[in-house]
Predict the structure.
Amino acid sequence: MYLLRSTPIMIVVFMIFTLTQGKPTHVLSSTNIKDNIKHLLSLTGIENEYARFLSFLKIYPPTDNTKIRALYDELFSTNAYVSDLVRLYAKYYTLDEIMELIDFYSSPLGKKLLQANHELNRQMEDIMLTKISDYIFTSAEHGFNIPLAEFQ
């Protein structure tokens, strides 16, 4: 008797699980493109990439001057960067396209792509640095001077 009563409940739970499995869990306004673009950017980890970029260029927030710090925040803060990207994305993508991108990057394949891209980019940086070093040393061995940009 217990099995007969619990079977419909188990079927309902199974159907709910089946219908929701793999679905994106974002709950955003479907009409606000800016909020959806921000969500898309957060899914892709753009903040971390931007921080790496600033670090690579050795652009750090000043700590000794509040006016310069305010200018830095206005120009280079993560919020300023995301705002600039939101404006650019809104020029090139419709709301429906942004929603499709959110759905993709929320999916297992989209997450795998993001994770693989970060690792592939890191490995390519190592490969390129090795190639650049080989190029410079080989050129120097043959008497060629390769001018390099200086970072301060």
In short: Confidence is low (pLDDT under 50) at residues 10-29. Helices lie at 2-20, 33-43, 46-56, 66-76, 78-92, 95-106, 108-141. DSSP finds seven helices and no strands in the chain.
